[in-house]
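Input:
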Amino acid sequence: MKRVSVTIKEIAKALDVSKSTVSRALRDSSEISSETRRKVMELAEKLNYYPNPIAISLLKNRTQTIGVIVPDIANRFYSSAIGGVEDIAYSRGYHTMIYQSHELLERELSASRHIASRRVDGLVVAISSQSENIDHFVALQEQGIPVVFFDRVSDAMQTHKVRVDDYKGAFEATEHLIQRGCRRIAHIAGPEKVSITRFRLEGYKDALRKHGIAFQEEWVRHSEITQAGGTERTYQLMALRERPDAIFGASDRITMGVHWALRQLGYKMPDDVAVIGFCDLAMSSLLDPPVSSVTQPSFEMGQQATSLLLDLIESKSTPAEYETRVLRSNLVINKSSLREIVGS
Amino acid sequence: MKRVSVTIKEIAKALDVSKSTVSRALRDSSEISSETRRKVMELAEKLNYYPNPIAISLLKNRTQTIGVIVPDIANRFYSSAIGGVEDIAYSRGYHTMIYQSHELLERELSASRHIASRRVDGLVVAISSQSENIDHFVALQEQGIPVVFFDRVSDAMQTHKVRVDDYKGAFEATEHLIQRGCRRIAHIAGPEKVSITRFRLEGYKDALRKHGIAFQEEWVRHSEITQAGGTERTYQLMALRERPDAIFGASDRITMGVHWALRQLGYKMPDDVAVIGFCDLAMSSLLDPPVSSVTQPSFEMGQQATSLLLDLIESKSTPAEYETRVLRSNLVINKSSLREIVGS
DNA sequence: CTGAAAGCGCTTACAG
DNA sequence: CTGAAAGCGCTTACAG
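Output:
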């Protein structure tokens, strides 16, 4: 199909002035007669003229568009973060292009290539769990396209980062379970290479240590961020000779799997097994029993990452130093972890 | 920050040939000596040269990018459909830009404007519930940017459409409830103006009629596609003097609200109230009891809409006639509607 | 206040 | 096989 649009040239010809004059009139330059401006504006309006942003991009080498890469847009944590990105981008006059990596390095590479070649002005990313190597993001940065990380960050690159206090969130969740009388607390962690997995695991371990509970390797299982992963690990855990009396899941998907598996197996929550998750469980209240969870300010993370990014884009120079913002998580207690406290 | 990239000009200068020659060598034109081609390719490789797609877009008036507008990417139905869009687009060499309307006409207008001005090659849309007027899509089409509708379609515009057999899905769901002995079947429908709402409502009514059950206005409630909407309508329905013995929800979000409200109110599913939803409830099995539902091939809808769109984009002329594809929905029975059948 | 000219990065008839 | 030139739609010093 053929595309039709009005150009500056046609307006110039119709009004018998030069393209330069039309351009100036449209951009409201000061050095133009109000009479000319009026005529140009009127005709532009009438012809429904819009400047071709592609031409402007070619000229300015700027597109007023930023990219976002997340593992999976269907994940509420990420879709909410994208909401935050759009919020800030929109209000500062930028558009947003959304990419999903599906946790695949290959897709992340393809998105990076698209971003580089389409001259997107900057990028907000939560790194795919499969991406141990992040040279593609370093390359973007060197090419002058700033990159800001959120949620899943990496030490392998100097830039702004926004994350949640995973360590503390995990520590508090674990301590809460201990306070409710649990002693055999299992942790279904995320993929091993991911930054947040390590932070959460540390928080879990340190809470055990603080309360004099021995850490047991077999009670920690790594899993993909899927319901199936949570289910399978729960089966493994409950099959152990010494079975856990609590399970702390590293994400909402995983925790949904835990919940499902425990129900299948006929365990009561919280009495047989107390359960707590990690993420913003909007749907947590739908489950029976409703699930306790460490909630994260996902929308705000998107906002902050974007605002840091736009600052980078709009500043002429590389900042003296990069910033890592650590936001607070929040412990929301529900029935799934609310055991009767027995004894001491 | 400043952007650096290699251009054709620099390659030409380094090799002491013309830009034309470099361009031809890169595009592997036939009229070029293999020696020159080799030299150019080598240097391009070494300098990490990529053609500037913005320049090419300006030239060809094509961007190899399509847009998708959905009400809400966090909704599984839409995120899955987007997966289908990406699948086809990717395999045919196109990129995808995702927009959310958040069910707001204003956001839909802003996305349409961006699409028009960025010269996106085409658009796949599920119309926002707030958009009674779709002139903005007609305008895109007239401007030469083809638009294909899926899920939420409109009669106000001639184009390809892909939808599910909502009428039949609703008919079967309602009939199933009747067969399980329900007689006072309520329907929480979607927003009034939306096409699928009407089709589903018709299916519901016709199933009642077929089985000689009188239709009652007060048992149909319109709601937004939210959990809160489903909850509130359920309260209203259960407060009626003659309360329903079954509720058929028009979407998964709504049905989640129904489920929650019934649990809060202490009704047993399916014995007090049988429940059935409409959408691909991946999470349906997580609820207790698991929810029956009319499932839709969302991924496939995205694929088909995109493949129709790309055909439009790549054909030179307007097609003789537009096509409306109606896909099959599927009834998945779970405990929430599985009542004991009493008597005949 | 207005216009002619150059240029953003590329492609492609048109000559040779 | 190669180069010079025009052009995609726009902006902006540079002259006047």
